[in-house]
């Protein structure tokens, strides 16, 4: 059995599928009720890693995960850009014609809106994608279908009516693998477009409330030819300032200790 990895959701969730894509089929993926439960399990050493979604190409940033990272001292040891492929699934005797209502997480329904309209199905919101598949199986819901992963259909014994039903084929969720220690992960998979040897650095820092302060901070990266791939502002619950998240990569793909002026390092919180 491989390492224990916490993810948010029930078996068959996209987070579990992403975990197995990154670390292999032998990983012990453990579903948690919430993102906070994942962080707590990692904090008390109940699991070895936590796999958390941080951003979706259509839905944007997942702010709960950003905020939880500020509150916990964990390392980001891997990143995965997971291609989300939605499947339509139902009980084994259902067909396209017998399905009237489709249930899933609201984001999955929104991402398949054109498909559902074309079929004339009524969308209905549920807590999550794989949970919707489980509900159909457990309650033997006739005339219902769920939007979830192929793994969810396998877990819950549902028949896949259609695959790749998302409206945008470029639907990608970015995941972070978090650890209590700074480790170099040995991927069981061969390098692909989703895995890279390039190193990235995410840092968190707060600023004084005065003119030009953010400009001055960002200039430190520009002057050293560091490429910022994302800038995120989050409210600080304790001070009237904001935290900024910046995934950073330099020309060689890594951020060395010499890249920042020592007078600036004290102003940043960094996970490398």
Features:
six-stranded mixed beta sheet; 9 helices; alpha+beta; five-stranded mixed beta sheet; single chain
Describe the structure.
This protein has 272 residues and is an alpha+beta fold. It is built from 9 helices and 16 strands. Strands 1, 2, 3, 4, 5 and 11 form a 6-stranded mixed β-sheet that branches. Strands 8-7-9-6-10 form a 5-stranded mixed β-sheet. Strands 12, 13, 14, 15 and 16 form a 5-stranded antiparallel β-sheet that branches. A hairpin with a 6-residue loop joins strand 14 (232-235) and strand 15 (242-249). Helix 6 packs parallel to helix 7 (150-156). The longest helix is centred in the middle third of the chain and has 11 residues, at 129-139. It is globular, with a radius of gyration of 21 Å. The two termini are 28 Å apart. Residues 189-196 and 250-272 have low confidence and may be disordered.
Could you write a compact summary of the structure shown?
This protein has 272 residues and is an alpha+beta fold.
SSE layout:
Elements: E1 4-8, H1 14-23, E2 28-32, H2 35-43, E3 49-56, E4 60-61, H3 63-71, E5 75-83, E6 87-90, E7 101-104, H4 106-111, H5 113-119, E8 122-125, H6 129-139, E9 144-148, H7 150-156, E10 159-163, E11 172-179, E12 201-206, H8 213-222, E13 227-228, E14 232-235, E15 242-249, H9 262-265, E16 268-271
Parallel strand pairs: 1-2, 1-3, 7-8, 7-9
Antiparallel strand pairs: 3-4, 3-11, 5-11, 6-9, 6-10, 12-15, 12-16, 13-15, 14-15
Helix pairs in contact: 6-7
């Amino acid at each position: 059995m491989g390492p224990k990895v916490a993810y948010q959701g029930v078996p068959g969730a996209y987070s579990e599928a992403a975990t197995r894509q990154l670390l292999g089929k032998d990983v012990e993926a453990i579903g948690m009720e919430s993102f906070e439960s994942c962080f707590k399990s990692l904090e008390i050493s109940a699991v070895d890693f936590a796999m958390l979604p941080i951003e979706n190409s259509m839905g944007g940033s997942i702010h709960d995960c950003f905020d939880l990272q500020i509150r916990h001292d964990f390392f980001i040891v891997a990143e995965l850009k997971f291609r989300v492929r939605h499947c339509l699934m139902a009980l084994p005797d259902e067909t396209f014609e017998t399905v009237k209502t489709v249930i899933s997480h609201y984001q999955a329904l929104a991402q398949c809106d054109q498909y559902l309209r074309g079929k004339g199905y009524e969308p209905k919101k549920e807590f999550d994608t794989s949970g919707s598949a489980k509900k159909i199986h457990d309650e033997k819901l006739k005339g219902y279908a769920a939007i979830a992963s192929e793994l969810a259909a396998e877990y819950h014994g549902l028949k896949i009516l259609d695959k790749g039903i998302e409206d945008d084929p470029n639907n990608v969720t970015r995941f972070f693998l978090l650890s209590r220690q700074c480790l170099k992960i040995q991927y069981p998979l061969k390098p692909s477009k989703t895995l890279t040897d390039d190193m990235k650095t995410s840092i968190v820092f707060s600023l004084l409330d005065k003119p030009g302060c953010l400009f001055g901070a960002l200039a430190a990266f520009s002057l050293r030819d560091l490429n910022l791939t994302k800038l995120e502002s989050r409210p600080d619950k304790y001070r009237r300032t904001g935290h900024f998240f910046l995934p950073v990569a330099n020309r060689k793909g890594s951020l060395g200790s010499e890249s920042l002026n020592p007078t600036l390092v004290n102003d940043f919180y960094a996970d490398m």
